[in-house]
Specification:
By secondary structure, the protein is α+β, with helices and mostly antiparallel strands. The chain has two domains: about 220 residues, no CATH class; about 300 residues, Beta-galactosidase, Chain A, domain 5. It has eleven helices and 19 strands. It has an eight-stranded antiparallel beta sheet with strand order 7-8-9-19-15-14-11-12, with no helix packed on it. Strands 5, 10, 13, 16, 17 and 18 form a six-stranded antiparallel beta sheet that branches. The protein has a five-stranded mixed beta sheet with strand order 4-3-2-1-6, with no helix packed on it. A hairpin with a 3-residue loop joins β11 and β12.
Length: about 550
Amino acid sequence: MNNYRPVLYVLLAVILFTIWTDWQHWRAPVPTGPAPTTRALPATPGIRAPTAPAAAPTTAPQAAPTVAGPRSTRAAAMPLVVVKTPVLTAMISTQGADITQLLLQRYSADKSHGQRPYALLTPSGHTVFSNENGLLGQVTLPNHTSVYQTRGGDYTVPAHGQPLTIRFRWHQGAISVVKTYTFAPHGYTVPVQYAVHNAGTQPITVYLYNQFLHSPPPKTHLFHSAPIYIGAAYYTPQAKYHKAPFTGMLKHPLHVTATGGWVAVSQHYFLGAAIPSAQTPAIFYSSVLTGPRYVVGYKTARPLVIAPGHTGVLTTRLFLGPKTPSLLKAVAPGLNLTVDYGWLTVLSQPLYWVLAHIEAVVGNWGISIILLTVLIKVIFFPLSAASFKSMAKMRKLQPRMAALKERHGTDKAALQQAMMEMYKTEKMNPLGGCLPMIVQIPVFIALYWVLLDSVALRDAPFLLWIHNLAAPDPYFVLPILMGISMLAQQMLNPAMMDPTQRKIMMIMPVIFTGFFLFFPAGLVLYWVTNNVLSILQQQWVMARVDKA
């Protein structure tokens, strides 16, 4: 049995998995199905939906909440209120008093260095992502199509200032509403409050809804996209964290009732989440509109009853910002789970924790990746040493294996039997060089996911020409070094007896170099560091074996 056959199988499996993942991501169909062409609002069983300026809303007395369509095109011409904090810039339209555009000041518009800021919420363009919230009830109440009144103007929140409050007013008949936003200097969480005053003679019931609208993610070329989840997600105390992919909304719309939790749209590195009051039961829903446009949000399950002459208050929260685990964990339970570490989250989370603490000391994410890789190699050194010792013994047996092959010729059964006898005589396990490596594979994959979906690496510089560890190396230096290091590793390993396997292993560095040309520089840096450390460890172990 050849010592490197399992390694070959593992490498081929990794390549096939990568190709399959990218292929599925690239060719994923975009569903188009029946959807309302006019504007619709979340319907509440047993009540009449309010009228809207853009079109008549629909009602569905026995159905799940029906979601709203895209904002009216005339919303772009409505007056805007601009709020700028040290971390974000929000543009609020008087139509709906909704945040129509939100810019993240500390993140660039794309993965190229120096372009700022990143537009998380955008009402138009290649990727539409917007937030809509409002009220529903038996009487006419303001929704995301209603026009509010406000003083207007631009506001700036100083870095060391107090939170800023912006108020929008709506009035019709006996009902008046004050919608309030609160912006903290360094926060990505925006509380929204509705104060509803009933000046009439009859009590009124009021529901609150908060929803996101998103267009299909833009398609990218095969091998140019990372297998990162982009779609809806929700969390409830009972069901915990679940994904609700856009492509499945048409056949399996979301309809979950819970007290507490949240509903969100997750992007690569960034997140928009609608968070209801923890004490208020809410219905999480989704739908697909023409375009297509995907809508996901929540509506309060029980109405707030406001007596004549009284004022009722309804609250919701928006999180609009980066997927930083510590930040998300402080906002709402389970929100940190939107950082997509794949199926090895149980390993990825502690790896990120260690990486973040190293960076807090050294102040450079690239150096932190190198030091974390060194730490992992030290921890797994006993396994690696066992593997390298097995390889060293295998190299010693190469002449005898060649002699056995020459003696038995094409009789493969006799050759395998003779080789097994030799392994038994030498007290050597032919899998001894592979099993320790296979044990380490889950850790390496977990670290791969950490580096792939860590927003801290976005725009993070390393050294010299690498200004963004989340973007590919612009001059392909790291991928080439990675290919050279793989080739150097193969030269240290015992040669394969099978000519076909030997040829395949020789082209592996070329294939992997081609893959890594488009990988984030942080990932390639980790792989290069891992390979170089493996070479040094292997040379040291083999030297001791030869000396012994």
